[in-house]
Design brief:
- With about 160 residues, the protein is of the alpha+beta class.
- Helices cover about 25% and strands about 25% of the residues.
- The protein has three helices and five strands.
- The chain has helices at about 30-40, 45-65, 105-110, and strands at about 15-20, 75-80, 85-90, 115-120, 135-145.
- The chain has a five-stranded antiparallel beta sheet with strand order 1-2-3-5-4, with helices on one face.
- The protein is globular.
């Protein structure tokens, strides 16, 4: 089988992608957190990992709402793979806006998942984007299933953690 990234799924399961788009308001973030928890439970993560994913998604979304352009929506794309769960959360921003990757919130986020990255991109490069060159701020998360960490990935939670001093 071929997953949505074009790679073969060795265990016969098809990778699936789910897109959730919500307003960037505090009242809508629980829906994103609930979706992350539901997917993690269906993928047989243990209870601690499910809660870690809920908290990580919540922190990532809260961080992105601080840099969103006006009332632009928050888009979260969940992709289940045989290795685990990949999440891209993004919001449209003003040109040149950076993802805040310093401070306690980012340190907590990095400790909850196996890999996290904050970066600038465009809507044309993002899953669920409109194909334009409009700027977006992105936070990408990876949480691997037990025993599924890809070869060549060293370290543990927070492996790519940087905190400004």
């Amino acid at each position: 089988m071929v997953d949505s990234r074009g790679t073969l799924a060795q265990d016969g399961r098809r990778a699936e992608r789910l897109e959730l788009r919500v307003p960037t308001t505090a009242t809508q973030l629980p829906a994103v957190r609930a979706m992350a928890g539901d997917l993690a439970m269906r993928m047989d993560y243990d209870l601690d990992a499910v809660e870690d994913l809920r908290l990580a998604v919540d922190e990532a979304c809260a961080t992105l709402t601080t840099v969103a352009l006006g009332d632009a929506p928050l888009t979260v794309v969940f992709e289940t793979t045989r290795a685990g769960l990949h999440i891209d959360a993004w919001v449209p921003t003003a040109d040149g806006t950076e993802v805040p990757t310093d401070g306690f919130g980012w340190a907590v986020l990095a400790a909850l998942v196996d890999a996290v990255e904050g970066r600038r991109s465009t809507e044309g490069e993002m899953p669920g984007g409109n194909g334009s060159g409009a700027p977006v701020a992105v936070i990408s998360l990876e949480k691997y299933l037990p025993g599924q960490r890809p070869t060549g990935v060293d370290g543990g939670p927070g492996q790519n953690l940087t905190v400004a001093r």
